[in-house]
Design brief:
Blueprint: H1 14-21, H2 23-45, H3 50-82, H4 86-103, H5 112-136, H6 138-141, H7 145-176, H8 180-205, H9 220-227, H10 231-260, H11 267-293, H12 295-318, H13 322-358, H14 363-391, H15 407-417, H16 419-438
Helix pairs in contact: 1-7, 1-8, 2-3, 2-5, 2-7, 2-8, 2-10, 2-14, 3-5, 3-14, 4-5, 4-8, 5-14, 7-8, 7-11, 7-13, 10-11, 10-13, 10-14, 10-15, 10-16, 11-12, 11-13, 12-13, 12-15, 12-16, 14-15
Length: 443
């Protein structure tokens, strides 16, 4: 079998699948930890006002949204010249763990918003260098949807491991290190080291992948001009970005819900484990269902399920019901597995279809646009939740200070964690259905 670009497909053993998938442990950590902990670190450790903290989280990601398509075009040009995407992967793998650790290591006397904001900007840049060519690789590793779903199953399992590390281990490391600013600094170094191991392993483990875009290298403007006719890609991207925004809002709200609704910040880790643990176990089941009933139909069902669970969390949290909250969080995790696996499995189909339409294979350009959209969703999520906090009158305080929040602030953070993600997930449903019609798959 050959790829559309004419590259002979190589067999995918477990070693090669793991060599690719392990990189998602690192990307999962970086995607989740800032959204989960950075906003809380800024408001409740450094005393940064919620509105300013929201800007700190959003500004670097806006830069990343602009950068990712440029990195995608650069990755394609590198692949045309060398047949590999290794150099950009290596740059990102080296720089991201260091800049990640700096985000949570604000020196005394330095404005926390400025330090963390600059470090986050540098980390987002390094993440783009790794993530964009990394997401481009599956379209070049396999030429069939079945094989790519298998690749994505490994990737999503590793991704959920990374997210589990982020949500389960990172807050625990903060507590074990004594909490406060010092605890966050220790966490940044420890989680950064784990991230480095995963990213370097993936960089080395994917050197065999023959990347042959072309037949000619394109600049970013020419690449986007050629890509804009790919309507299925942009419809799928709209669904994925809206859902990424919904999940990011929930991640940002988890520490606040644990602290102010459930009464224990330490429950942040428990909630995260309940979300991600079932997600990892559900991946093989969703892959089987997608083969049997169609990827789009399963994607739509999982989106509806996640929306329903978010709504059901409102009365559970309003009554302080821990058992019901954790059970519903686990059910959300089952749906979350499909929201990761299925759109990423469908993405290479849109890339290959575009190559047939235009005669120009440009995986990097499309994944640059894809990761730009994902980055925007993940970035805007904490910023949107911070806006909810600001509008509802949430009062920030540095570590060691005790502030009693007004009832309207408690209601605001509850609805920001539940109703807002449900609304965003509802908005994504027409895009999923539209993609199914464009791809002529049952919905």
């Amino acid at each position: 079998m050959t790829h559309p670009a004419g590259v002979v497909e190589r067999p995918l053993g477990r070693g090669r699948l793991l060599g690719y998938g392990v990189g998602s442990i690192g990307t999962g950590v970086f995607s989740a930890v800032p959204g989960l902990l950075l906003l809380y670190y800024l408001t409740d450790m450094l005393g940064v006002p919620a509105a300013v903290a929201g800007v700190v989280l959003v500004a670097p990601k806006i830069w990343d949204v602009l950068l990712n398509p440029l990195v995608g075009a650069a990755s394609d040009r590198e692949a045309v010249r060398t047949g590999r995407r290794t150099r950009l992967l290596a740059i990102g793998a080296a720089a991201l763990p260091v800049t990640f650790a700096l985000m949570f290591a604000v020196p005394g006397g330095v404005p926390g918003a400025l330090w963390s904001g600059v470090a986050f900007l540098l980390a987002a840049t390094a993440f783009a260098c790794f993530q964009v060519p990394y997401v481009a690789l599956p379209a070049e590793m396999a030429g069939t949807q079945t094989a790519r779903t298998r690749i994505m199953s490994w990737r999503v399992v590793c991704l959920t491991v990374g997210i589990l590390v982020a949500g389960g281990l990172a807050p625990a490391v903060v507590d074990l290190a004594g909490g406060g600013r010092a605890g966050y600094a220790v966490m940044g170094v420890a989680i950064g080291a784990l991230m480095a191991a995963a990213l370097v392993a993936a960089t080395l483990g994917t050197r065999w992948v023959p990347s042959r875009p072309g037949p000619r290298p394109l600049g970013p403007v020419a690449a986007f001009r050629l890509a804009r006719g790919n309507r299925p890609f942009f419809v799928l991207l709209a669904a994925f970005v809206t859902q990424a925004l919904a999940v990011a809002v929930m991640l940002a709200g988890a520490p606040y819900v644990a602290s102010y609704r459930l009464g224990d910040y330490g429950l942040t880790s428990v909630m995260f484990v309940c979300l991600v643990g079932p997600s990892m176990l559900a991946v093989p089941g969703w892959a089987w269902l997608a083969r049997r009933h169609g990827a789009v139909r399963c994607y739509l069902a999982a989106s509806i399920g996640f929306c329903a669970v978010a709504v059901a969390l409102i009365p559970a949290l309003a009554g302080g019901g821990l058992a019901a909250t954790l059970a519903l969080t686990a059910l959300a995790g089952v749906c979350y597995a499909a929201l990761q696996l299925l759109p990423l499995s469908l993405l290479p189909d849109t890339v290959h279809a575009d190559a047939a339409r235009t005669g120009q294979a440009q995986s990097g350009a499309f994944t640059g646009l894809w990761t730009a959209g994902e980055t925007a969703g993940l970035a805007l999520g904490p910023g949107l939740f911070a806006l909810v906090l600001a509008l509802s009158g949430f009062v920030s305080a540095p570590t060691g200070s005790s502030v009693a929040q007004e009832p309207v602030a408690l209601t605001g953070l509850l609805l920001g964690f539940t109703a807002l993600p449900a609304l965003l997930m509802l908005i994504s449903l027409p895009f999923v259905a539209w993609y199914g019609r464009l791809a002529k798959e049952p919905v």
